[in-house]
Structures are given as C-alpha cells and as structure tokens.
C-alpha cells in the first residue's frame, strides 16, 4: 500500500535523490531519500544526527524517510552574503557537528562525506545527514579514494593512501568550520593537484614538521609514489588565513586540520578543548529561533 504522496523533488546527488512527500495517514510533510547503500541510521539515534522516521519500497525503489529540516549549512553561509557569524553561533554550530560526529565514531562508523550540504539546520538545531557513504570502522575491505567532496577531502584520500578511517571526518569538520568562520571555503581546489597545493601552502608540506602535527612520512612517500612534486613548503598558518577567528576557535581548527591522520584530534577530545569550556548555547529540538538568518526550504543535498 502506498504510504506517501510525492510532493516535489528537492535535489539530486551522486548517491541519492531528495524528495518532499506527505504521509497519507497523518498528513505530515517529510523529506525522503532514495538510497543505494545505507543501514547505519537505525543504530545512530542522537539529537545531532538526522532522524530516520520510516523506510519503504515503492516502484522497485527503496526509500528512507527523514524528519524535515529547513536548510543546509551551505545555504546558511551563502545567505550571510559575506557577513561573519557571531562567536556564539560559530561555537554552537561547531559543538553540534562534533557531538554528532563523536556519536557516529563511538558507535563504530565513520561518515566519509561530511560537507556543508550534509549539515542540516532547523531553527537552532544542527544535524549531520546523508549517510550514503557511511562505513563501519571494523570493515577492513579496501576503500575507494574517490569519496567526499574535494574541498573537504582529507590529504590521505587525495594522496590515495591505502588505508584511511575516522580521521578523514575530522579533517572535513575542520574545513567546514573554517568556512563558517570565513563565510567562504578554506581550500577551494580546482582539481586534485590544486587541492593538495592549497592545503600544503597553508599547512606546510608533509615532509616538514608542523607544530603538533609532526612529519607525515607516509604522506611524503605517497606523494613521491604518485609523482606529486612539491618543494619544502613551510606552513603559512591558519592565523594568517583566518585572522578573524578567536584564539580558541583557531586552536580547535589547528587540532582538526593536521596533515598526519593519527595526530588529528578525535571528535570527543575536540569537545574538551577550551573553545567549548565557556557556556555554549545548547538548543533543544523544536526551538524555533534561528541562527541569525531567515529560513528558506531545503533545496538540495547534492
């Protein structure tokens, strides 16, 4: 029996399509995603993770039904028109994303496709969404290197390292939060090589020691193996690239955006850094205030 009437198509992604539908029985309007691979959400119940409300098969396709959200983080930053967010807003967004990511990792998964379009917002509530590329941490099968959107792709993926794991999510979070502060992308690479160059220009090349990051021998060897030529580039430093970041936010970014994956901070440890020690606004689901913007409907999660 048909349970939902499709209202409209909201967006098309590489691994899913997002539609707006109305439940025939209750009249509730929801967002629904057709998916190719996903099963983790049944185990991931958290205030900062999108809620899976239902699933059904229709016309030989399988659908997952999620709570309706107003917009994504890309739309939020774009709506600012280069006007920076306040510190409380930045810290609230940061904390909520990290809470969601910490829960994902602590329950045996990593996301693999974190980007502003996959961070959804309603009022003051922030939720991680789009788990089409989610992977179990205990699954040791070879993983593809073509995942996530280039601007948020960790250097170990760009360099096609044999193994990668949850630290790639923390790199993506760092790039996302830098974008929230700057109201523009931190590493907007035009292709894979340009992306690496932009990262090395700011963070330094992998064969040099950078603060707490240390020398990343595997990255340097992999770059040589791929024929990637780079000179010994000293780190420019995030403080020069993001001068408007508070010292506490800058410290958070410096712990997240570390070239050497094993030296990147975990999500749970990041939540213990000084930036979150002062009271951070904690908003309950259903709070209809907004993050300083006028809301508009979700258009895409591509």
Polypeptide structure, described:
The protein contains 9 helices and 10 strands. It has 302 residues and is an alpha+beta fold. It has 2 domains: 4-66, Phosphorylase Kinase, domain 1 (2-Layer Sandwich), CATH 3.30.200; 71-276, Transferase(Phosphotransferase) domain 1 (Transferase(Phosphotransferase), domain 1, Orthogonal Bundle), CATH 1.10.510.10. β4 (52-58) and β5 form a beta hairpin. α2 packs antiparallel against α4 (167-182) and α4 (167-182) packs antiparallel against α8 (247-256). The longest helix is centred in the first third of the chain and has 20 residues, at 87-106. It is globular and about 65 Å long. The model is unreliable at 284-288 and 293-302 (pLDDT under 50). Pfam families: Pkinase (PF00069). Keywords: ATP-binding, Kinase, Nucleotide-binding, Nucleus, Serine/threonine-protein kinase, Transferase.
Entry summary:
This protein is of the alpha+beta class. Helix content is 28%, strand content 17%. The chain is built from nine helices and ten strands.
- For CATH, the homologous superfamily of the largest domain is named as Transferase(Phosphotransferase) domain 1
Domains (count): 2
Q: What is the 3D form?
A: globular
CATH classification class of the largest domain: Mainly Alpha
Annotated CATH architecture of the largest domain? Orthogonal Bundle
C-alpha Rg (nearest Å): 19 Å
Structural class label: alpha+beta
Number of helices: 9
Helical residues, percent? 25-40%
Q: What multimeric state do the chains show? A: single chain
Strand content: 15-25%
